[in-house]
């Protein structure tokens, strides 16, 4: 049983207000760090609300955009054969993929054919009327075998004999009711779709027509388990607008008119979402036309993009990734010459925040290429001839950064084709059946979005394969995937004295790179501005703190044992009325007015809303203080109201909070945990004193590395899932890079003996020795 903290027992937390790490010294010399990866839940659906409709002046067609000087000239002849056209395939088995479970938010892959029912690839024979086909998608076509939450596919229905729809859903899930793709008799169609993956790594495609159809599918990307900024979250499809039924707006959307569609707060899309994946459908149009979707309130553009095109009498739909306004809404503009019956369904959203490697970033749809007027067309203006392709510069235009881009999301438009055919969008000119971006019929303008990896020079290839007719081409920028950047190595300073006045340091927390708070055993505290330390003066300072957490620079809570809790206001301390006389072992805050406090011995927990404490369900059932195997919660880390992790001693020694209840979890396999820090709801790092190696645990699998600490691990801090720092007494420090830990002792990383560490960002880590000397890590 733990009844108090020894002089060598520090408390730390990571830098973000959403994350918290606590440390205890056990006196043992064999210790380890455990990295935990946990799968998040899909948000539940919600009801919709009514958008509004307004009339605007009809815009000029896309060809009215001003011409600019060509950036390059490169038209390469392409092989004219069935393999390149995407209408035949000889291989019967998709190429297997061997890759680690991904943590990036989004990854684009080179287009690879994984389904062709005509040849038996993935499934054999036409898909009958009203029948479904289950298609394995993980482990094939560049998609990893595990850790995939959604896939991005281009699905083609070649030459259907009747009109109808195809509906996609996760294998094993309740069948979706909103079609993913619409097709017209006699005209092949290609549409990019985003589909959640079932537990068996498969998706289901259902033919909702009255005749059998052939189905082709190419893998072009996937969403990993990362839940940081730019991660994609699928939701249960929900209708936001139906002008025929009067949902959101009533009656046809007039030519030149626009309709606003509120998205956040509906169907599980939270406030603050950066973008939404919506399916926009035009039903039985009386005339051909096209539409654009942009953030609500965004200024008009000279050359609006064409995100969905349709012909007279042919219903058309497409999945669009659209940035949301600050109010969480988007606007759909009818650019056609007749009123339309419009439906808008939400399928998912993109989390907001500063982009990191793998982040998906949506930009307002912007025309960047047009062969008709020469807009960034690298050859003389005019249609793209059969068996030809062009290299297009996409980085640095239309809101896409000039560097740091691994893939782009484009809208490719085939305009006034002279005959039937298709356009390919690929990374290079290599021949192959996959990569269809748009399939079109004679004189039918069609468009579709496509996710494409970019070359190192920021280019992609648009090709008109052999057998196709000449066609004008326009390209719109819709978004991009941020690339991993090469960052400098973390360099650690030697231990240097500070003006903090601290001695016997036990707790440290950095809310930001310019705001840290540290406490010692003598009832003293100090703040760090990013460059200097300043002693905190005044009364009510905690003595021998057991935990500290800062939701902001002006709101920190510190626990210090029985009936002890204080709030730091940025300049001094204020006593709070503890919610219990129990021994309070730790606290975790993710906002200035949002914290959770835990009592280590009894397992009781409370939330704090800035003014009052409210009891939560207990972490565990106490078994008595005289039982040496009794559970004890030493460390707590919360990312928000619906996710916390706690570790300590006992069997088990780990627990998870889901917003409603705590459950036992294998965060530390053998007990005696000293610290935990959760960067996201799917990634935690924990320190254990009973394992003589570095251990990772993600997705239910353990990985043990033969790296031993020579002294007890004291603190762990993770600003994100790909960077953590652990420290131990005895000049030992180890760093996590997303896959492995460095050896803490060979060679020695630091010259001092840091006991507590807090990393508010990847660029800064602040560590303190017991005697108050600092060891700073900077990139």
Q: Mind telling me the CATH class of one domain?
A: Mainly Beta
Tell me the number of helical segments per DSSP (H or I, 4 or more residues long): 1
- Percent strand: 35-45%
Overall radius of gyration: 29 Å
**Overall pLDDT:** 81
The CATH superfamily title of one domain:
YVTN repeat-like/Quinoprotein amine dehydrogenase
Distance between the termini: 41 Å
- State the helicity in percent bands: under 10%
User: What is the strand arrangement across the widest sheet?
Assistant: 1-30-31-32-33
What is the CATH third-level topology name of one domain? Methylamine Dehydrogenase, Chain H
**Architecture of one domain, CATH level 2?**
7 Propeller
Q: pLDDT below 50 for ≥5 consecutive residues: which ranges?
A: 1-34, 36-62, 64-93, 96-103
The coarse silhouette is elongated
| Largest beta-sheet characterization | 5 strands, mixed
Q: Count every beta strand, where a strand is a DSSP E run of 2 or more residues.
A: 56
Map the helices and strands.
Blueprint: E1 11-13, E2 32-37, E3 52-55, E4 75-77, H1 82-85, E5 106-116, E6 132-136, E7 150-157, E8 164-170, E9 181-183, E10 189-196, E11 202-209, E12 216-223, E13 232-242, E14 257-262, E15 275-283, E16 289-295, E17 308-310, E18 316-323, E19 329-334, E20 341-350, E21 360-370, E22 388-393, E23 405-415, E24 421-426, E25 436-440, E26 446-453, E27 459-464, E28 472-482, E29 491-492, E30 505-512, E31 515-520, E32 525-528, E33 533-535, E34 547-552, E35 555-559, E36 561-562, E37 565-568, E38 573-575, E39 583-591, E40 594-599, E41 605-608, E42 613-616, E43 632-640, E44 643-649, E45 654-657, E46 662-664, E47 673-680, E48 683-688, E49 694-698, E50 701-705, E51 713-720, E52 723-728, E53 732-736, E54 756-761, E55 764-768, E56 774-778
Parallel strand pairs: 1-30, 2-49
Antiparallel strand pairs: 2-48, 3-14, 4-22, 5-12, 6-11, 7-10, 7-12, 8-9, 8-11, 13-20, 14-19, 15-18, 15-20, 16-17, 16-19, 21-28, 22-27, 23-26, 23-28, 24-25, 24-27, 29-56, 30-31, 31-32, 32-33, 34-35, 35-37, 36-39, 37-38, 39-40, 40-41, 41-42, 43-44, 44-45, 45-46, 47-48, 49-50, 51-52, 52-53, 54-55, ...
């Amino acid at each position: 049983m733990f009844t108090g903290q020894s002089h060598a027992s520090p408390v730390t937390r990571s830098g973000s207000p959403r994350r918290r790490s606590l440390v205890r010294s056990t006196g043992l010399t064999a210790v380890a760090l455990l990295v935990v990866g946990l799968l998040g839940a899909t948000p539940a659906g919600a009801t919709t609300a009514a958008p509004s409709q307004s009339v605007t002046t009809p815009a000029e067609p896309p060809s009215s955009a001003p011409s600019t000087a060509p950036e390059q000239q490169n038209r390469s002849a392409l092989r004219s054969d069935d393999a390149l056209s995407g209408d035949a395939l000889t291989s019967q088995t998709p190429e297997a993929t061997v890759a680690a479970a991904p943590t990036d938010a989004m990854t684009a892959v080179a287009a690879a054919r994984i389904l062709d029912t005509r040849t038996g690839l993935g499934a054999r024979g036409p898909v009958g009327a009203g029948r479904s086909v289950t298609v394995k998608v993980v482990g094939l076509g560049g998609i990893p075998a595990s850790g995939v939450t959604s896939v991005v596919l281009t699905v083609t229905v070649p030459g259907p004999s009747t009109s109808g729809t195809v509906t996609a859903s996760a294998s094993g899930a309740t069948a979706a009711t909103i079609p993913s793709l619409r097709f017209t008799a006699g005209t092949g169609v290609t549409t990019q779709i985003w589909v959640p993956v079932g537990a068996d790594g498969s998706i289901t495609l259902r033919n909702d027509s009255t005749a059998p159809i052939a189905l082709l599918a190419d893998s072009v990307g996937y969403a990993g388990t990362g839940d940081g900024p730019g991660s994609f979250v699928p939701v249960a499809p929900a209708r936001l607008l139906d002008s025929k039924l009067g949902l959101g707006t009533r009656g046809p959307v007039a030519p030149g008119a626009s309709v606003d569609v509120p998205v956040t707060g509906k169907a599980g899309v939270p406030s603050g979402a950066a973008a939404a994946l919506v399916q926009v459908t035009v039903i039985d149009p009386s005339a051909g036309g096209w539409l654009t979707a942009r953030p609500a309130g965004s200024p008009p553009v000279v050359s609006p993009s064409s995100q969905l095109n349709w012909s007279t009498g042919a219903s058309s739909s497409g999945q669009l990734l659209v940035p949301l306004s600050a109010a969480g809404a988007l606007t759909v503009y009818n650019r056609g010459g007749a009123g339309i019956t419009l439906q808008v369904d939400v399928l998912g959203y993109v989390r907001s925040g500063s982009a990191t490697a793998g982040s998906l970033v949506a930009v307002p749809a912007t025309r960047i290429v047009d062969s008709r007027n020469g807009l960034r067309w690298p050859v003389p203006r005019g249609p793209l001839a059969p068996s030809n392709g062009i290299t297009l510069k996409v980085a640095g235009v239309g809101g896409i950064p000039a560097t740091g881009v691994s893939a782009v999301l484009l809208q490719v438009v085939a305009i006034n084709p002279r005959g039937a055919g298709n356009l390919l969008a690929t990374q290079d000119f290599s021949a192959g059946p996959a990569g269809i971006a748009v399939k079109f019929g004679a004189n039918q303008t069609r468009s579709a979005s496509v996710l494409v990896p970019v070359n190192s020079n920021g280019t992609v290839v648009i090709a008109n394969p052999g057998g196709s007719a000449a066609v004008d081409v326009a390209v719109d920028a819709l978004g991009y995937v941020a690339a991993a950047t090469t960052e400098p190595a973390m360099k650690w300073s030697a231990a240097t004295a500070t003006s903090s006045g601290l001695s016997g340091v036990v707790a440290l927390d950095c809310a930001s790179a310019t705001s840290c708070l540290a406490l010692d055993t003598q009832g003293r505290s100090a703040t760090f501005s990013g460059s200097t330390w300043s002693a905190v003066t005044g009364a009510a300072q905690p003595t021998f703190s057991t935990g500290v957490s800062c939701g902001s620079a002006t709101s920190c809570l510190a626990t210090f044992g029985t009936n002890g809790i204080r709030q730091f206001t940025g300049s001094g301390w204020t006593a709070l009325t503890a919610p219990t006389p129990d021994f309070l072992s730790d606290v975790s805050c993710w906002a200035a007015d949002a914290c959770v406090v835990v009592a280590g011995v009894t397992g009781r927990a409370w939330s704090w809303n800035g003014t009052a404490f409210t009891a939560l369900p207990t972490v565990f059932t106490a078994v008595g203080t005289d039982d040496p195997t009794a559970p004890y919660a030493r460390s707590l880390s919360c990312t928000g109201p619906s996710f916390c992790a706690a570790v300590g001693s006992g069997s088990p020694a780990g627990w998870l909070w889901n917003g409603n209840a705590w459950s036992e979890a294998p965060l530390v396999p053998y007990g005696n945990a000293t610290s935990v820090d959760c960067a996201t709801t799917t990634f935690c790092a924990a320190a254990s004193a009973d394992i003589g190696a570095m251990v990772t645990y993600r997705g239910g699998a353990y990985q043990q590395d033969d790296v031993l600490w020579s002294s007890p691990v004291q603190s762990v801090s993770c600003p994100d899932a790909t960077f953590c720092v652990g420290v131990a007494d005895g000049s030992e420090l180890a760093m996590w890079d997303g896959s492995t830990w460095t050896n803490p002792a060979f060679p020695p990383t630091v010259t001092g003996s840091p006991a507590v560490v807090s990393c508010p960002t990847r660029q800064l880590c602040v560590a303190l020795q017991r005697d108050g000397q600092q060891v700073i890590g900077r990139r």
